[in-house]
Write a structure and sequence with these properties.
Blueprint (H helix, E strand, L loop, with lengths): L1 H20 L12 H8 L3 H13 L3 E4 L3 E4 L9 H8 L3 H23 L2 H19 L6 H17 L4 H9 L1 H15 L3 H19 L3 H36 L3
Antiparallel strand pairs: 1-2
Helix pairs in contact: 1-3, 2-3, 5-7, 5-9, 5-10, 5-11, 6-7, 6-10, 7-9, 10-11
Length: about 250
Amino acid sequence: MVEEARQIADLVADRIETLILDGVLKPRQRLPSERQLSEKLGFSRSALREGLKLLRARGIILTEQGRGSYVARMMPEPSTPLMHLFSEHPRTLYDLLEVRALLEGESARLAAMRGTEADFIMIRRRYEEMVALIQSEEPVELREHARVDHAFHLAVCEASHNPVLVHTLQSLTDLLISSVFASLNNLYHRPVQKRQIDRQHARLFHAVVDRLPEQARRAAVEHIQGIRDELQDIEVEEQRLLRASMRLNGW
């Protein structure tokens, strides 16, 4: 009986690990209640407790007083010195955009190939949330806009069904939202750039849900590279203005 109980606990742990790898349960997400989780997984509550005990021993599930049990981060914490350097130095924004183009281009291609109807429903919801925010007559806080924009891109990535790709992007969430914030802050108040970003998002959305892998990859890459090019143009123009102003003031 002891061996049988151990095997069932292993099965429970394996099922939960699969849910985490597949992105159904996300890093830092609180687990459902014992009752809900046992019903969803089809195991008894005693078997569930033993499975969770295994996952806690592996550091995959964490439990805190007042917070309950939640999924641990799969990647390094963003508070490490390296992550601090990335977030504090603007020049790394261009490096981050290069990485985004590589990862999100491939995730869009895979999403168009592998995405299920359920994935496309989630992508559509995130896209429509973003469009509703853009069209809202109420003032929108820029960080909320950045969060909704990022959620759309993450939904596309999750539809790739590549757990390593999904967890890599999730581990960079804070940096990615910062890059979206920077693009919105510097570009979105400019009518030409705003229209371009909106069109690029629309192209990406339609290419993925219409199952056009190469068009989806190209749309994602062109969107991110376009943002990088626009930001670099603004930076160059600001440097020209600064030099001209310094000459005018006798430097």
